[in-house]
Amino acid sequence: AAAMRLATLLAALRPALPLVLGLSLGCSLSLLRASWGPGGTEEQCPGRAAIPGGARPEAAGVRPGPGHEEFRPRIVPYYRDPNKPFKKVLRTRYIQTELGFHERLFVAVLTSKATLNTLAVAVNKTVAHHFPRLLYFTGLRSAKVPHGMVLVAHGDERPIWLMYETMYYIHQHFGSDYDWFYIMQDDTYAQAEQVKALVTHLSINQDVYLGRAEEFIGGDEQARYCHGGFGYLLSRSLLLKLHPHLDSCRNEILSVRPDEWLGRCIIDFLGITCVSQLQGQHYRTYELAKNAEPEKEEEEEFQAALAVHPVSDMTLMYRLHKHFSRIQLERAYQEIEELQMQIRNLTSLTPAGEAGLTWPVGINAPFLPKSRFEVISWDYFTEQHLFSCLDGSPKCELSGASKADVSDIIESALEQLNSRYQPLLRFSKRQLLNGYRRFDPTRGMEYTLDLLLEAVTQKGHSHVLVKRVSLVRPLSKVEIIPMPYVTEATRVQLVLPLTVQDLDFVANFLDMYAMNTLDTHDNALLTLLFIYHPYDAQRVSQVDVFAGVKAMVGELEKRYAEVKIPWISVKTEVPSQVKLMDIVSKKHPVDTLFFLASVWTEINMEFLNRCRMNTISNWQVFFPVHFQEFNPALVYRGEQTASSSTDFLRDGHFDRHSFAEACFYNSDYMTARTKLAADILDRDEVLESMEVFDVFLHYSGLHLFRAVEPGLVQKYALRSCNPRLSEELYHRCVLSNLEGLASRSHLAMALFEQEQANST
């Protein structure tokens, strides 16, 4: 019986036996570690608290030994001296600037007065657009600098002096902005993409002097210098360490070659020699023989070269660029084919199977709309006409970039058909029957073509057939367009034109201006432009139609003692926007940032900051598209207006017909206005048919940034359209009023209710 009870007990405990053994083993190992670990036999010192959270003793005040640093987050408490006045902190919106990031690569090309217009131009046309920043350095400046080249002239043609001044200039102007510095001569052809790929695989924590290592003339030491003809790469840390010794090198080191001089300077003062291989990366070069033919060079060393030297003339530079570009293109196509094959092999292993394979392989699948409002429409075209025009007309002539696009896509379709069916069939185009295209933001431009083709067999028999082909022009690598640096500290000068019809809305404008700019101490000033009709101007001494507005301005100036709001009075029957801006422009400095507003604009800090950021002097002007709320009488029909945050920007639309708001610099306006004056001569009546947008569009080479602006929300109001303006401006104003009434669904509901009421 005892044996039976023991067997029953063991059977009950068997499932828990691994747990008991694991706990026992863990406790035993913990006791052993406590007994043999450092300080395990000592008692805790009296008066010293135990370190919470299992932290190491170093965190309790003991300095850690070398190699055992603890990188722990440290919270710095915020403290502000109550005796000092509060100052608003302006932080940049560029995270790269705030975190101190550096650009990757800076390229310097050493040239001369004799080769500036030949070899230097060839370098600029072949590789300059591949590098993020490239400057040319020369001793003496020529009479005319080639277009598109940034040249730095030092004033002395001596090679050593040119190298010294170049290194000093690079450190002074770009030493804190870039991680790598590539120095080359204008008789060097460098594969730009290979150079950029090289620096991405190197660590910036080392002092790097990388190039084609050469022995010093007459020297028997192990040190090497980098040959200047094949280019060389310097790291930022090496440049910073070298800068203090440049003057000593110039005075103490004698050399004929500038690359030897620089190499000797780096070796003597920094102890760093030139290397051709670093961190697993090879700097491969090729010395070009005299009268060499790049197309006939088949050596592997030449095909893999990163830099080729010497290049004797411009034609040879272009031939080298063509040869290496063809090699890179073949490698890219081969890599694409390999990736597509891998995608096909892996797709069969996915849950979707072969059905999940999209065409073209490797390109994103077409956009799938979730509602009818998201459907991307196709544009119909032929070889002569386009049936979706920018001006809204149903048919327009195919020209310019659209015509070139259609011609290119037809040629590509024929090329693909012939490459697939030759030598059995050879296709030639007779006519484009139908063409459709649409832009899919997830993948690119899609085309569908119905082609009337003539197919010729190997025996010469021909046959006419119709074939439908589909093509995709995929979105390529996204590039960030370099833009000049701007800040949010720029003062904005608001300009508000006012007519008699605007008097009912001025009070709200001034209230919003005071609340969002004066109370927040934003750097924004206001100038009022009173537009008097000639009849009102004659009676201004008896009855001033703008007396109420002037009284409100006086109240603001009393409330804010440091604020002055000037006004300008103008008498005209036709308040042309350009003529009014001419008056304001003459009364302000050329560096003034204007914000041309309307009386329905509600000023806020968010938009003012975007006005500052999107307007760049001598580069870009900003024309925001404000959000216009619909007529509440039609939208809500007597119901209470929704006020929740979820209804923001719901009952309205972005008014693309309005160009009343604009941000631009006075200098840019004056430049464009000067070109306009030379074009129209004394025909001032032309100005009545133009707006400021038209001036910048036709008479300036600036970027016109036209974008929707959610920060500009205007309440519904029926605008007064002046019939004295041009027909186009008047028609645009009427369209703005009509489209601002309500949406189609709201208008349909209003008509339905009206018909229901009439029927009863």
TrEMBL record:
Residues 48-68 are annotated as: Disordered. Residues 322-349 form a coiled coil. Keywords: Coiled coil, Glycoprotein, Golgi apparatus, Membrane, Signal, Signal-anchor, Transferase, Transmembrane, Transmembrane helix. It is an enzyme of class 2 (transferase). InterPro entries: Chond_GalNAc, CS_glycosyltransferase. Residues 1-22 form the signal peptide. It is a single-pass type II membrane protein. Its main location: Golgi. This is Hexosyltransferase.
